[in-house]
Design a protein that fits this description.
Radius of gyration: 19 Å
Strand content: under 5%
GO molecular function, one term: metal ion binding
Protein name: ascorbate ferrireductase (transmembrane)
Oligomer: single chain
Membrane topology: Multi-pass membrane protein
Catalytic activity: Fe(3+)(out) + L-ascorbate(in) = monodehydro-L-ascorbate radical(in) + Fe(2+)(out) + H(+)
Order of helices and strands: HHHHHHH
Keywords: Electron transport, Heme, Iron, Membrane, Metal-binding, Transmembrane, Transmembrane helix, Transport
Distance between the termini: 15 Å
């Protein structure tokens, strides 16, 4: 099913929002939160890698993976490979992003997995991994039969959209959780940092919206009736 709009123009808006969101999350964590580090005596800068990796690595690259299959002017096998690789990169960076949150908590003697954001985050990364493995086995290698692929494709698309929407929602909860913590620690509720975090969350949600719109728009004519792709 596709709405009567070409996917490529819609994707341009998503690309712009992706760049804006990436810049905003980097400015927030580098300029306001003190920088990024894998190891540091200042444990907060370790945590700062979490939102950066989750937004740029997971949400943005994952969104680009979804849009790539709708928009790239390439043959189907090439688009399939790009789609698969981008999702793999998103998954790996997402896992590292979650690891950085655990690393920060463990080194700061803070409990793990106590919030709705953390519960949903683990659920999203697990579902994303299942989706990738299923897509790899059925649509890439060794590949299912034509009947299996044609029957699986609508469910693969639907489940992928569901997981991505859940990921964007989980990211929004993460912004809210972090902003609540830093405001309780003294950050002004109407200060520059608070506004930056809230607007970054809005840009993230808008990016996710345009990714989904792109996925629902019309593909190039050569792809309309094929079920051989992820």
């Amino acid at each position: 099913m596709a709405i009567g709009v070409k996917a490529l123009p819609i994707s341009f808006v998503a690309h712009f929002l992706a760049i804006a969101g990436a810049i905003m999350v980097l400015v927030w964590n580098i300029s306001f939160r003190g920088g990024l580090a894998w190891e540091s005596t200042n444990k907060s800068v370790i945590f700062n890698l979490h939102p950066v990796l989750m937004l740029i690595g997971f949400i943005v690259i994952g969104g680009e993976a979804i849009m790539s299959y709708k928009c790239l002017p390439l043959k189907k096998p090439e688009k399939k490979l790009i789609h698969l690789v981008l999702h793999a990169i998103a998954l790996v960076l997402g896992i590292f992003g979650i690891y950085m949150a655990f690393k920060f908590h463990n080194e700061s003697n803070i409990a793990n997995l106590y919030s709705l954001h953390s519960w949903l985050g683990i659920g999203v990364i697990v579902l994303y991994g299942i989706q990738w493995i299923y897509g790899f086995l059925v649509f890439f290698y060794p590949g299912g039969t034509s009947a299996i692929r044609s029957e699986s494709l609508p469910w693969h698309v639907l489940f992928g959209i569901f997981v991505y929407v859940l990921a964007v929602g989980t990211a929004a909860l993460g912004y809210l959780e972090k902003l609540t913590f830093i405001q309780n620690a003294g950050v002004a509720k109407y200060g520059a940092e608070a506004f930056l975090v809230n607007f970054t969350a809005i840009v993230t949600i808008l990016f996710g919206t345009f990714v989904i719109l792109t996925a629902l728009c019309q593909s190039p004519p050569e792809d309309e009736y094929s079920y051989s792709a992820i």
